Amino acid sequence: MKKTKFKVEELLPFIILLLLILIFSITTGGKVFAPNNIMIIIKQTLNVIIAGLGLIFVASMGATDITQGSLVAVCAAAAVIVAADHSVVLAIPAAIVIGILSGFFLGFVNARFKVSSFMVSLAILIALRGLVSAILGSRSVMLPLSLMKLDETGIKLPIVILLVLVMGFIFNKTPFGAYCKGIGESENAVQFAGVNVTKVKIMAFMISGLMTGIASLFVLARVGGSSNVLGIGFEMRILMAMYIGGVPVRGGTGTKIYKLIIGAFMITLLESGLTITGASGSYTQMIRGAVLLLVVYIMGVMQRRFSPQAG
């Protein structure tokens, strides 16, 4: 019965993606797959994948980090200001360091003081959005042309592939990745095995912050400048990409990076297809929510139907 479970649950993200491709091929008359639109889909998807590669470590523990949108805005604001006042070279580490520090603080409060990761990240999300407004005010700051080259597919795609390989190796082939998934399965069991769970949690959130800091540079390059509304809703797109792709909410060994990647393409394709068909923003949001609920429901049914107990 476990073999059947693997086939159904592991293939479900690919089945849903194929259905979306078929639906939008028909409803848009193939316009969604025009060369220009495909490039747009790829570029938007890559930003979600980058940030998601960090969040996957947190999600595998059954925890949550919803700071990505606000953190992208803070990292981007710091990057453009450093680039303008000091050096373009220093802008990149500035964004990354801020991301890591944010992740460290979130992980420290969650792991050391046993505060819900959702509540801590919600508080940080609000605080960071206020910090962006304090830094930039109502003005928008343009990015130097040299950094805008990061949005070029020839530069962006190889970097993302490298990040996928590195994060994939850490997540799947190292003890740290196993500990993260083990915490999602049973935190007490991992702790009884002698693993420093607090350290693992903090490091997982730091990796999430690191990847969000890197993602902020690509979001910044795509938009061309920083403002206090940059990144709004970005965290929701990442979470939807994971859960539509079949990443279990509870974490554990069912957390797979390929599910994130497939889910990222699904959410971007869904948004692009709805836009081309003429759906308004409000309808797009409702459909996204409905699709997410449907997929989570199907995954729940599959898990109950093909679990060992059901047999």
UniProtKB/TrEMBL annotation:
This is ABC transporter permease. Its main location: membrane. It comes from Blautia hominis. It comes from the Bacteria. It is found in: Cell membrane. It is a multi-pass membrane protein. CDD domains: TM_PBP1_transp_AraH_like. Keywords: Cell membrane, Membrane, Transmembrane, Transmembrane helix. Pfam families: BPD_transp_2. The chain crosses the membrane at residues 12-34, 40-59, 90-111, 118-141, 153-171, 202-221, 227-245, 257-279, 285-302.
